Amino acid sequence: MRFAVIAAGEGSRLAQEGVEQPKPLVPVCGEPMIERLLRIFVDCGATEIVVIVNEWSTAVREHLEQMKLPVPLRLVVKTTPSSMHSLHALSPYLRGERFCLTTVDTIFREEEFKKYIRHFQEAKDIDGCMAVTPYVDDEKPLWVGVEKQEDAEGASLLDKQGSHKKPRITGFHDKQEGDDHLISGGIYCLGDKALDVLDHCMEQGMSRMRNFQRQLVVEGLKLEAYPINKILDVDHKEDIAKAEAFIHPLEGKTLVGVCRGNEFSPNCVDNDAAIMNAVEQQLEALGAQVMLMCEKEFCRKATVLERAYGWPRCRVTVGVDGFFSMARSKQALDILGRIEEEGVLVVNSSLGVNRCIRRIMTERFIAGGIATPESRIIGRNGEMVKDIHYPCWLKRGDGCAQQKEDTCYVQNEQEAEALLKEFWLRGITSVVVNEHLKGDLIKFYGVSGTDFFYWFYPSKCGHRSKFGLEVINGEAQGIAFDAEDLKAEADKAADMLNVPVYGGDCVVSEDGSIRIIDFNDWPSFAPCRDEAAFYIATKMVCTP
């Protein structure tokens, strides 16, 4: 896939406001804008990069000629009257391969851009994909009309991972019309059909990129709108500071990640470590200084400092702006709880993690109306309940599952009574009994308050959970259900428990109804780690 940059503008407003460098060479977060784009394009797997600069911008041309990239860099030197004319000058070098075009001063977050490129590479049945944003900071925005995200019955359209399908573009408008809520982001993924339309525009004497985009719709090209949360342009001197704050919102912040102890990660040690490392990388990309430590090390350090200084004068939080934690031990959660009481951000909240203890979670879900199986709670040394249908599940109620014997499937009363005695002999203080639900088993992951939600059938992709219990429900049949309803119910459960970073399991019954059978604080996100890490980092930015 080729990438192209229009860097042929004058940058007159920046110059009038005292910015000495030509616009492409203006540094944002210490990196010239043109270099930032080229670096990101290389990371996206560019086969070739084509850049157009104007004839009088010798400094930009010389800068580009001196750059050494691992992919071919083609330079087009031509002064043009509009961006549409610049694209036409680039077009001979873009044909024969799909491409992405942007202007040099377009500012976006790298991970969102990379997701956009991956989507276009995978979407073989479209003619183009335009980056759009709900963030309006343009002096003359181009509004983008899109088709409704609903089917004939009014149900939300979501793809197989639970993300919204990208809507078809229906028009481009100088003024906001009807339900318009997105504007053009100035990033375009296109192919040869679009360049044919561009030739038609030139033949008709058109100018301006917005007129070219309108003509794409007129000639019937299939264009998708890909929403990106925020895209900025650097038109004025003050925009440079805005761009830097946007790219590095955590600049000057120090964050500590507390990793889960191995004893709380049965068969998931590597995956749990991997998600923490991925979040660390995303937070660093947002400008933060990040330190990871295991929960035992965290507890040891906090204990030593508390003994030396006392609490709240314990210096464990000095110079730390927030914590992100997968910790599960009582000691670590107690310490994190006291840190939260001092007003320091902790994600997930220790209070929320404690609410994920199965007995407490079950009580809260029942009281809050979360769709769950019929359940009973048995206190310590209690007898098996009589009013439950078999088969059913007996699950440890006083903590999270740490071994296979903590979550058991039983087929009759005799098995249940024998297993219950084993629970009591192991010192477990409460047991939750869940009815067994027939239907399709689904695993899901989410970050509440964001658009991220991922679901899949474990039986269809060879996924094996910590204890492999998904085999009980057998091969999923693909029963139709509303994925938007599942996301809403999962987000509601997460908010109820105060665990914005979550995962879980549900069963879809024959009638399409959904009931949550398990819910966890901060899972490993193994099938969707990189995307989840981005949204977890975003949550750290957005949480006050």
Task: Identify the notable features of this structure and list them briefly.
alpha/beta; 3 domains; 544 residues; elongated; D-amino Acid Aminotransferase, Chain A, domain 1; 9-stranded mixed sheet; Rossmann fold
Fold topology:
Layout: E1 2-7, H1 12-16, E2 27-28, E3 31-32, H2 33-43, E4 48-53, H3 58-66, E5 73-77, H4 83-90, E6 99-103, E7 106-107, H5 110-122, E8 128-133, E9 143-146, E10 169-173, E11 182-190, H6 192-203, H7 209-218, E12 223-227, E13 232-233, H8 237-247, E14 254-259, H9 269-285, E15 289-294, H10 295-309, E16 322-325, H11 330-341, E17 345-347, H12 350-355, H13 358-368, E18 375-379, E19 392-396, E20 407-410, H14 413-425, E21 430-435, E22 440-447, E23 453-456, H15 458-461, H16 483-497, E24 501-508, E25 514-521, H17 529-542
Parallel strand pairs: 1-4, 1-6, 4-5, 8-12, 14-15, 14-16, 16-17
Antiparallel strand pairs: 2-3, 6-11, 7-13, 8-11, 9-10, 9-11, 18-21, 19-20, 19-21, 22-23, 22-24, 24-25
Helix pairs in contact: 4-6, 6-7, 9-17
Q: Can you walk me through this structure?
A:
By secondary structure, the chain is of the alpha/beta class. It folds into 3 domains: 2-247, Alpha-Beta Complex (Spore Coat Polysaccharide Biosynthesis Protein SpsA, Chain A); 254-348, Rossmann fold; 358-542, 2-Layer Sandwich (D-amino Acid Aminotransferase, Chain A, domain 1), CATH 3.30.470.20. 34% of the residues lie in helices and 23% in strands. The protein contains 17 helices and 25 strands. Strands 1, 4, 5, 6, 8, 9, 10, 11 and 12 form a 9-stranded mixed beta sheet that branches. A 4-stranded parallel beta sheet has the order 15-14-16-17, with helices on both faces. A 4-stranded antiparallel beta sheet has the order 18-21-19-20, sandwiched between helices. The longest helix is centred in the middle third of the chain and has 17 residues, at 269-285. The radius of gyration is 27 Å and the shape is elongated. The model is unreliable at 152-164 (pLDDT under 50).
